[in-house]
Amino acid sequence: MTASDTSAASLEHLREHGFALLERMILIRQFESRVQALYAEQEMRTPVHLCIGQEAVPSAVCSCLRDADHIFSSHRCHGHYMAKGGDLNRLAAELYCRSEGCSGGKGGSMHIVDVERGVCGTTAIVGGSVPIALGAGLASSLRRDGGVSVAFFGDGASEEGTFHESLNIAALKTLPVIFVQENNLYATSSHVRNRQAYDGGASLARGYGMPACRIDGNDAVAVHQAALEAVARARRGEGPSFIECLTYRWMDHVGAGDGLEKGYRSREEWDDWVRRCPVKALEERIVEAGVADSGQIAAVYERVNGRVDEAFAFGKASPWPGAMTLSENV
Ligand SMILES: Cc1ncc(C[n+]2csc(CCOP(=O)(O)OP(=O)(O)O)c2C)c(N)n1
Ligand SMILES: [Mg+2]
Fold it and tell me: Which atom of ligand 1 is nearest to the CA of 188?
């Protein structure tokens, strides 16, 4: 599988899917930016791992899926939940640890779920999404229900043992699983070149016998093309695929700051990636291609900001879980 495409095909793809992709990306950007802005109030006490800068990957992958398809994610999971159509109000309520949160206020930011929309769980255990997605893929395969299972995970996950076991079994059993690695170059404050002698997860996946590509994870169209191909392959019963997306988180590993003062990454590197903003890049391409004009894009921001206002108002107004429910659902 290759993600490179002729520019004519890419332009056609942009015309067909670009605006819908942009809407999802703007939702994630605006929601995450709101979390960032409100975090200083100290009312959200859950640790947050924001995905600002990485919006293209969840948007593009999830827009290739059906409600019945299952996704699994990590600590950096808000974008995956939103892109798959998870309930926005209940996400905001969960960040305030309130009873109407998607996990009843007991999960917080890293444990979010909306089973009806196929968001089947997120886990803070690095690499944890990978074997769980494998299990869901095995279930779909046994039931022959045509479902596809997606694991989202970071560059750190390919350093975990279960990652390797899962890729092996997925390929061996021809399971409908798509492995999506968001390679944002860092695990907490450690650069990938100080942790891995191999060149990215895709290079490992090929060794396990599945098609794999490494693509620009800030190019929503490229990610969408790669994901469509992987989903089609899985639905045809031809087995797993691996998509490694090169991207970058603008925020620090955890919390609402950029972490630049910690010195584990340079201002130059950060500036360079911020210039490559996936949202702005797609907006520019959409306008250039005549798919939509700036007024139509501004209308999306307005609509999305209204939804985000509503979600946070809902979250803040939601009651705390009652003391008597302390041991329920845990
Ligand atoms: C098994 C395990 N080891 C270590 C940790 C501590 N930890 C939490 S997030 C993280 C870094 C993860 O990096 P990556 O997988 O690249 O995801 P990113 O944060 O970049 O999205 C680590 C080491 C953990 N949660 N689980
Ligand atoms: Mg990482």
Answer: 11
